[in-house]
Amino acid sequence: MSSLRRAVTERLFEGVETDDDCRCRPGFEDDRLVVDASDCPGDGRLTTSEGCRAKVVRKLTQRDAESVHVHQSGVERVYDGAAGAFLVAAGRFCEQVRDRDQRLADRAVRDPLAAGREAVGRADAAADVAAETGLGALVEDAASYESILAPLSGLAVSDWRVDTAVPPDATLETHRDLETDSTVRIYRFPDQRNRYVLSPVGQSLDAASTAVLSRAYERLADGTITGGDRAAGRAVRSVVEADEDIPVERVTRVLHKHTRGHGLLADLFADPAVSDVFVTAPAPENPLSVRVGDRRLPTNVRLTARGVRALASRYRRESGRAFSRADPTLDATTEIRGRRVRVAGVTDPASDGVGFAFRAHDRDVWTLPALVANGTMTASAAALLSLATERGRAILVAGPRGAGKTTLLGALLWELPPTVRTLTIEDSPELPVARLQDHGREVQPLRASTDDDFTPVDALRTALRLGDGAIAVGEVRGEEATVLYEAMRVGANDAAVLGTIHGDGAAGVRERVVADLGVPASSFGVTDLVVSLEQTADGTRRLRAIEEVTGGDTDDFETLYARPDGSLEATGHIGRGNSHFVDALCRPDESYAEVRAALDDRVDQFRRLADSGRTSPDIVDERTLERNR
């Protein structure tokens, strides 16, 4: 639009913003309309203030904007998507209909919803303009301004925005108050969809508190206040006036969360029911989703473009990975609210922008008795795995992503004799190394990555050079498989070899190891057990089968435990005295029957521990010490 026409348009709509005395100051910044509502009595609330809405619509008669951003007292409200489209359509409609019907144009500035409905119901040029500008289609399903102009809102100091609107036909299913003072609600809609709604604590701050928050943030940003984790508190206290009634501690926590913390990720992972958080590319355009049990639910939370860049920069720095077009994937770990979280990232050109998947690993360290107690496996299956680990067998734990492979691998490490030195090889640290070390276990972790100079092959060769002991490989997935099996074949280690692998059952694992990873079929035969896990439709993780490997050929497997009707049961192979694996467990002076008796004793131990709830690492470590004295 020319400057002359813009001036004419402004004069035509001058004075139609009602008597609300709106003092909003709108202006275009690139493709956005930015509104400063800091001095406006209507607070720039487009749903409730007719004057503020009129000021914005009148500005949009000059040109389009991709979104409208209203800033008021340290809070930003973003109108994009359907809300932004409605405001832009209203501006277009006003500008185009004024030559045909000035009264309708004036009404559209003040009340575009009513003006649009009026135009749609007419049989003249106004109806055509409503259709051409898109206003007609947008008002058809709009019940009110609260529904059509529901903004994404967030603190100006934050890189996160939330949609606070909840449709009136939604039913509250669950409500939880979090340790972060935020609130979670899960709503069900008539079409059976569910939505995870987060109400961050920062949204409940009053105008005076958010103003303090903004001033404190500025002092951190310009370097006036420094000092690591304590800087947020010092910044807040430095701007609070003596007579101000400000919740200093709460404001400090909010500032710390959005400057040195993980933003709203901290709130999401403060919910113990959340196991995963997904940021789908292009991130600013998509709400986050979470996994709660077996359900993946959309949330009301979004990241800004600046927030996406900040997260990418943070994990690039923490992981030491490039995470760029030249290296468009990321695998890292971090800690959020006391939970170890694995971070997977992807960026251009592998995806349309930056995306993340965050997976929390259990706060607690799992043991075999704990897995018996929660129904993952039976005491009988746990006893077999315990004895096999203690006596130095080679065990692969298989299953799909999310089935609990690493959890079981970590539980097996507690079954190793306390005198056995253990070397762990992981890309991202997930095994309970620190807890094992706290209990006096000698555990040497080695971290390797296919992206680094120190690869899994290098790590495994290093482990073999570091001396005898048990080896636990976080995931067998590449060239290290050949080295691992060669070491097992020639007896280069004198204790258990444990690892996880993606696969479905012993036959599927053998196919992956031999065909995909290049291990000779004869070498695969040194595997003793393949333990398969699964995740059911309701999100339950459980042991599906235990199979012994009796040779390298495709059909050389015997199933020891399976779920023929849903319940994990022994197949009777061990009981009939036919198990080559149990026979291999026998010590020189021990018979097959004596090994079975040892298994029965261990079954009783696991049942007693699980039934009494005595499943902690302390108890299990004590039992392991007693067995190995």
The total beta strand count reads 25
Indicate the low-confidence ranges by residue numbers.
1-19
Morphology call: elongated
In total, the number of domains comes to 4
Assign the CATH superfamily of the largest domain: P-loop containing nucleotide triphosphate hydrolases
Given the helix and strand composition, which structural class is it? Answer: alpha+beta
Explain the layout of strands and helices.
Blueprint: H1 3-12, E1 25-29, E2 32-36, H2 50-59, E3 67-72, E4 75-79, H3 81-97, H4 102-110, H5 112-120, H6 125-133, H7 135-140, H8 145-148, E5 152-155, E6 160-163, E7 171-177, E8 183-188, E9 194-199, H9 207-221, H10 231-239, H11 248-259, H12 265-270, E10 274-279, E11 289-292, E12 295-298, E13 301-303, H13 305-319, E14 329-336, E15 339-346, E16 355-360, H14 368-373, H15 379-390, E17 394-398, H16 405-413, E18 422-426, H17 433-438, E19 443-447, H18 456-465, E20 470-473, H19 480-490, E21 497-501, H20 505-516, H21 521-524, E22 529-535, E23 541-549, E24 557-562, E25 569-570, H22 580-585, H23 592-612, H24 617-627
Parallel strand pairs: 2-3, 17-21, 17-22, 18-19, 18-20, 20-21
Antiparallel strand pairs: 1-2, 3-4, 4-5, 5-6, 6-13, 7-8, 8-9, 10-11, 10-16, 11-12, 14-15, 15-16, 22-23, 23-24, 24-25
Helix pairs in contact: 2-3, 3-4, 3-6, 4-5, 5-6, 9-10, 9-11, 10-11, 15-23, 18-19
Structural notes for this entry:
The chain has 24 helices and 25 strands. The protein has 4 domains: 3-150, no CATH class; 162-197 and 274-361, Beta-Lactamase, CATH 3.30.450.370; 201-263, no CATH class; 368-622, Rossmann fold, CATH 3.40.50.300. The chain is elongated and about 100 Å long. The longest helix is centred in the last third of the chain and has 21 residues, at 592-612. It has a 9-stranded mixed beta sheet, with helices on both faces.
